[in-house]
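Reminder: ligand-aware prediction takes two inputs, not one.
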Amino acid sequence: MMEADTIAAIATSVGHAGIGIVRVSGPASNEIARAVFRNSRQEKIAVFEPRRMIYGMVINPQSEEKIDEALCVFMPGPNSYTCEDVIEFQTHGGPLVLRQLLRVVIEQGARVAQPGEFTQRAFLNGRIDLMQAEAVMGVIQAKTEAALRNSTQLMNGELSRRIRLHRQELLNELAHIEASLDYPEDDIVSPESGTLLLLLEQTVRGFDNLLASSKTGKVLREGLRTVIIGKPNVGKSTLLNALLGEERALVTDIPGTTRDSIEEYISIRGIPLQIIDTAGLRDSADQVELMGMQRTRAAIESAGLILLMIDASAPISESDISILNDLPAIPVIVVVNKIDLPQLADLAGWHDLTRKYPVVSLSAKEKAGLDKLEDMIEKLVFANEAHLSIDVCLDNSRHIDCLIAAKSNLIAAMAAIADGMPLDCVAIDLRAAIQSLGQITGETVSDEVVREIFAKFCLGK
Ligand SMILES: Nc1nc2c(ncn2[C@@H]2O[C@H](COP(=O)(O)OP(=O)(O)OP(=O)(O)O)[C@@H](O)[C@H]2O)c(=O)[nH]1
Ligand SMILES: [Mg+2]
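Here is what comes back for the chain with magnesium ion:
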């Protein structure tokens, strides 16, 4: 464990709340607690029993003035979040109480923690690896249940174990190659190229599985940008309102009602959706409407999913067809709306036009058939996972980049073997792959990258 100073921070969010927590970690924690905490009989605590919550008060030791009622718990290292001695004070959650308490803690020798510094210490002291540390923020920021479940599994080290296993296998092979190169006179037999190739192929397949999961992982973490488009008046805003469960967007029977894009977050089957209702697309001379349509086109560019809406109660028009022909190469679901009205659209004609996309029929106004749309979105997002043997997704661009780098190193190693290159060439690629994998879990990452990662954390974590 490294030698460190003692850090302190308000760990709960600043505002008015029932309870607030000040957390202290480092060698002086215990001494600080003795100075600022008194039990219910206003006595100093001689020895804090590990992990036992004590009721009493926090005071300003200079004036002996009471700051607030408090609970105090001592978690001695290494069995604490940071692996160091940790003290936590629970007081009332008023910003003034917490700031006063933090001030006296600082006066007793702690310093204010940097964002993420507690978790950084947990990492540096070897309790968790870097991938697990990064998942902590995923847990805090999760927008839906599915995202939370994934981050929790990452935090528990589900993927770290797999990455480390791959890395260990490559390290074993590398050690074997290096031994045979360094001590040829000791008759160390160099690895057989067929066996080595097989292992590398298997490893690349494992990486591909993980990379395939990353699409879903990123959706869970960042939300799926879902843009509702279509002609004016087909019912786009009505669908947004129905999915949201509130009358967020204006709905009228006047075509061109929505002028500006409207963005909202919703959760569908645990998947976070950033849903965008747009201005209807048509030929128009109205300046404001034209600007709205420009925004619609910009929204389409950045979409992860398009819900293309058509009105089943009106005949297919040129506008419908031109919207359909202009779609970019991203997933599209065709939503046939207003099925509660007599059907005037030539659905057979539509089916010809929309053959390459899944179609769902519903009535946004009557809220009928929305579950079919939700089924379809769920299927689309989890489609990658159906055939995968993994239940947790890679969700972090840094990890994805490192894994892609490791994969290309292994492919280079395989090519070197296939070309009959000397083993020291293969060793170079293996070493690079091992390095990239170590960057994911933190064994080989630079201090600068570590600092950068934890700087994005919230205070007190
Ligand atoms: N009968 C019926 N009417 C609907 C349905 N969905 C929407 N409408 C009606 O269609 C009209 C237009 O709805 P909007 O949601 O404003 O349509 P929009 O596509 O957002 O229109 P713009 O904003 O102008 O592009 C309103 O009168 C809605 O009540 C539906 O499923 N059934
Ligand atoms: Mg609208």
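The first helix runs from residue 29 to 36. The first strand starts at residue 7 and ends at 10. We will return to this case in the review session.
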